[in-house]
Amino acid sequence: MSASINRWGMLAAHVCINFVLGGVYAFSYFKTPLMAQYHWDPATLALAFSINMGIIPLPMIWGGRMIDNGKGKQAIVIGGILFSLGFILSGFVDNLPMLFLTYGVIAGLGSGLAFTGNLNNILKFFPDRRGLASGIVLAGVGVGTLLCTRLAEYFMAQTHDVSRALLYLGIVYLVVIFIVQFFIRSAPAKDSGGIKASPLDKDYRHMLKDLRFWLLFMILALGVFSGMVISSSSAQIGMTQYGLLSGALVVSLVSIFNSIGRLFWGGLTDKLGGYNTLVIVYLFTCVCMLLLLFFNGNTSVFYFSALGVGF
């Protein structure tokens, strides 16, 4: 790594990228105004977020290869542009199939590519403090969700139109990507003096044949599912089932706890190791989801569980 590169300044730039990408998890805030404005069915509307989450892993494979080839910045910029365009184009649609395409597919492709490039690129500059660096960068996602809801509230108050809010958010995101990319440098490719690969490193063909990969895949998928439920529906659940007045408040609180949790678990990973930290995270998530199941209707339990899963 070149001595002229300030890795902490780079870290700040990567956090700003995640401020943008965190906007996708504010979907629960947009659900109610979208249903009111276009009279869409809530279950069908939720498919837009589901498609987005399902699409995200696909470009991550491409993003990983770009990182290995020393093209981390390109992955971030291309992904960021696609993500922003997904929001911008969503501001012009008035039917669900097009929303599935713009918010679901286009924004999902951009999110997966940019997120993979953003996280893995900066971690190559922090081989000595990977847990802390990843925690700080990932905390940007939670803050980004909070910023998205606040900006959306402002745009909604000014325009009284949720589509305009999505359009303006996309424009803001595009401007942020354009500015921040000047402060980002690609980490060197594997064969150009970067961090040496571990003897356990395998290519994707060997990885797909390894049972441990599929076990890890299933564990992570099940764990992430809980977070996606809270991210996509916390505002609507709070307002319809618990009589809460502000969906934005619920989303904001979950986002704050999400940011704190990412910092906390990232730092803990450096001390306890990834495996031990994951065990604690999943046990805590399991407790929170069981509380929601068995104490349905209790507002205090709802807040504790939603914030706990976010954490």
UniProtKB/TrEMBL annotation:
Gene3D superfamilies: MFS general substrate transporter like domains. GO terms for molecular function: transmembrane transporter activity. The keyword Methyltransferase does not apply. Residues 1-311 form the Major facilitator superfamily (MFS) profile domain. Keywords: Cell inner membrane, Cell membrane, Membrane, Transmembrane, Transmembrane helix. It is found in: Cell inner membrane. GO terms for cellular component: plasma membrane. InterPro entries: MFS, MFS_dom, MFS_trans_sf, Proton-linked_MCT. SUPFAM superfamilies: MFS general substrate transporter. Pfam families: MFS_1. The chain crosses the membrane at residues 12-30, 42-63, 75-93, 99-119, 131-153, 165-184, 211-230, 242-265, 277-295. It is a multi-pass membrane protein. Its main location: membrane. This is MFS transporter.
